[in-house]
# Entry
Amino acid sequence: MANKLYVTATEPRSGKSVVSLGLMELLTRNIKKVGFFKPLVQSDHHQGERDNTINLIKSQYHLCSDYEEMYAYTVTEASQLISLGKQAELLDGILAKYNSLAANVDFVLCEGIELEGATASFDFDINVDIANNLGCPVVLVVSGKMKTPDELIRSTKVYLESLEERSCDPVAVIASRVDRSYEDAVINRFQQEGISKNQLTYVIPNDENLGNPSVGEVARLLNAEILYGEENLTRHVRSFTIAAMQLRNLLERIEYGTLIITPGDRSDVILASLAAVHSMSMPNISGLMLTGGLVPERAVQTVIEGFQDTVPIIAVSENTYEAAIRVENIHAAITPDNTRKITQALAVFERHINMGELSDKIIKTRTTIVTPKMFESQLLQRAKADRQHIVLPEGETDRILQAAEVLLRREVVDITLLGKEDKIKERISSLGLHLDSASIIEPEKSSLFADYAETYYELRKNKGITLDNSRDIMKDLNYFGSMMIYKGDADGMVSGAIHTTADTIRPAFQFIKTKPECSIVSGVFLMCLNDRVLVYGDCAVNPNPTAEQLAEIAISSAQTAAIFGIDPLVAMLSYSSGSSGKGEQVEKVRRATEIAQERAKSVFPGLEIEGPIQYDAAVDPSVAKTKMPESKVAGKATVFVFPDLNTGNNTYKAVQRSANAVAIGPILQGLRKPVNDLSRGCLVPDIVNTVAITAVQAQAEKNQQ
# Structure
């Protein structure tokens, strides 16, 4: 079952609020706890403003979340971050707020932002970016206001093509505010143009009652004083007229739902308007707006008070012309207090939307998109769910300290820093970091040192190690950190920012050692492409694995994929697919595939492994249909096992650079407890990700015990 949905529109005032309201109604009928989230809002809560849609949904569906939990940034804040080149920080913040809300509900309905003026150019793109990074299927609301069927279809196709180019997943297209005379034509054109093939399509005709503001909205937006008729503020303003003419001419211009705007001292207009309201032969007006800061004289007030059911009469300080311009610029909204409009909106939605069909589609559709930012966010959330203790031997290194601050502030892991305590504290102070909750250990001064040296001696004395040798070795930060893991004083270790790979993993080989079912340690990279995450192995450790070792790498890589939420479909790569090729290397891969398939029956039942197979047949469905049409892996592989280190290392770097992919790793697999190596050129985000990966590996190891 899907647990999220993103509603976005092609332009402002498209009827998106009606769609969001209708979707909330649909979802709350089928799902116990539904949340509502807007990544960006126009209103600034710090200045006393609140987003109307959030207020509406929160009030109508009695949501328990606080207002502040239901949005991430104001548009102003988002624009500032984007202008400073901090779009990644913007997405991080949105993901963090979304994840916090999603943790407490069963389903989240997200609503995008639509902007006007100078900022409108980036709104659709940023909505698509957010939807993809949240992993949400999309409902696209296309505005039909003032559009012919041809114009509407063209607009719809352009936006759908844009979504497809960005690997976004639209589940439904709703054309809203369509002229009633075009309703059938648009429905037919959706079918003729094939738009209905890949997603559900609906048409909601324009409803004047929803498109027009109520008198209450006019009063609120103009900060008007309500003089009379407070109980009738939900009347809809269909039009307005300025009463600056003689009564006989004014009466001819009154239509149903007209708001009459007149100076507050025009007693004749006021009384004539009230008489028209109670006349059986005159259209019923929506209300009166008195301008100039003037109110009726006492005698007129007495007459007004004599009416039992008075239309709303509101007063503003502006003169008549200014007030009329402000009314003209008001855009209707469905406010929480307007139960009539809420009821009408739900009725319109249900009348034109197949609720059962849409409900079934939404709840069953799970997007396959996983963006790099989405994967990284999910990674941190998984690590936070069961905090592990990670030791960082390079505690004197600035990048390590900066990453440690990020991890501790976000409560991802508990951290021990190794190194000279005075040097670490000096660097923390110099960098202005807050690492009060980090543990700092200087190995030689630690109460653990003697026990660790003795333990190492006992483990390695048959290799000629003396106790003095052991003490010297245990001064090495990587050895001390590895011993912390071995003794259960830490759950995992990350090093390599200033050490070689050999220095990082040698201690683990010596006494942490491999799992009983593993004869080798191998390394995989998580390759975060624009819309998915793939696993590449072995790209880091074994130069020329045998068929048996290659089979072991395949099983270990599949297990690693599963740990990180990737459904493993294993492709054993070679320069030929199936039985077409011959040669020593192809035969090695063929033999490795057979061994892996047999071993998987006991250690990973149901695991699909295909090989030998070429990369294009493994990843491209169209090529797979030609080369290996019967394969369950071809065209949709997620785990790629390379025949040797030369091929694997070069391929991952080629994909990383040419496809602008984020390569996370190498992740070492096969050890009893997790130790991971950093690149010496790693950045702070790389360290954060690697520590989180190590924590998730530690969680998995504990769960298997």
The mean pLDDT is 86. The chain is about 45% helix and 15% strand. The radius of gyration is 33 Å.
